[in-house]
Design goal:
Actin-crosslinking; Ubiq_DUF569-assoc; mainly beta; Ribosomal Protein L25, Chain P; globular; six-stranded antiparallel sheet
Length: 282
């Protein structure tokens, strides 16, 4: 676990293919992509969160993506029938931290070289960037497999590349009005607008919500612009804010620096007063 000590943010690069673990814009999927100047850099950056869990207490690393969700697979299940080996490997995605301990998002590192390691979750399943296995559209998915390090270890090796925090708050993506051009008007005419419920709560300057006393307001929001969402929230609370997303009751607040996911899922927003202590720390 020494590789992650002192690291706030990191990219995970497949040691063999030089692809990066990337949170997809649907807010739930995870792929590993080659570097692409057309893809937002934030989606390949993971916040590093160290936790102690279990008895005796063991240190794990949690990796939190651009949408506030955590790198993890479905919960492990015991397969008791004889052909259990024929089941497809569980696919890794972006998960909510909705229980005090979620085994599938808690990772331990097995060091293989200087900054190269294998990651296994609390159930002993290793993170695999299975080489040559693509989904529709040619996007390589990640899976988790059993705890045996075998000759195919190149699919299990990940290089940890620390990312230095940028001083100050990065600018939000520029909002584009869909009706501004002919293509935008045609898209809006042919497809239902992307609408979701936004639930939000204002935190104090230390980022606390008040456990058991939190009151979430809600409204319907159309589109994906995080800039327009911030403007809407500022109108509602009456002061300048930083927009943070929280994925699950036990998830940490994550500044939302990219546009909203391509989904209709409810988004849980924690509003921080801009330039507050917690806002500058997040």
């Amino acid at each position: 676990m020494e590789v992650f000590q002192g690291v706030q943010f990191a990219r995970l690069r497949n040691w063999w293919e030089e692809t990066y673990v990337t949170a997809d814009e649907d807010g739930r999927s995870v792929y590993h992509y080659a570097p692409d100047r057309h893809r937002p850099a934030h989606e390949a950056i993971w916040a590093v969160q160290m936790v102690l869990a279990g008895a005796p207490a063991t240190q794990y690393v949690l990796l939190r993506g651009a949408y506030g969700r955590y790198l993890g697979a479905p919960d492990a299940v015991v397969r008791r029938w004889p052909l259990s080996c024929c089941w497809p490997a569980p696919v890794v995605g972006q998960r909510d931290f909705d229980q005090p301990e979620v085994d599938a998002i808690m990772w331990r590192a097995v060091r293989r070289a200087d900054h190269v390691l294998c990651l296994h979750d609390k159930s002993g399943r290793y993170l695999r960037g299975k080489l040559g296995i693509l989904v529709l559209g040619g996007r390589p998915r990640l899976t988790v497999g059993d705890g045996r390090l075998n000759d195919d270890e190149k699919a299990l090796r990940w290089e940890v590349l620390p990312v230095l925090p940028i001083p100050g708050r990065p600018e939000l993506p520029i909002s584009i009005v869909p009706e501004a051009d002919l293509v935008g008007r045609l898209v809006k005419a042919c497809f239902l607008p992307l609408q979701r419920e936004i639930q939000f709560v204002a935190a104090d300057d230390d980022g606390n919500i008040g456990e058991g006393q939190e009151v979430w307001d809600s409204f319907q929001y159309e589109g994906r612009s995080v800039q327009l969402l911030r403007n809407e929230l500022e109108d509602r609370v009456g002061y300048a804010i930083t927009v943070c997303v929280r994925a699950g009751r036990h998830g940490q607040h994550s500044p939302l620096l990219i546009n909203l996911p391509h989904s209709r899922e409810t988004l849980h927003i924690v509003v921080l007063r801009r330039n507050s202590e917690e806002s500058t720390r997040s």
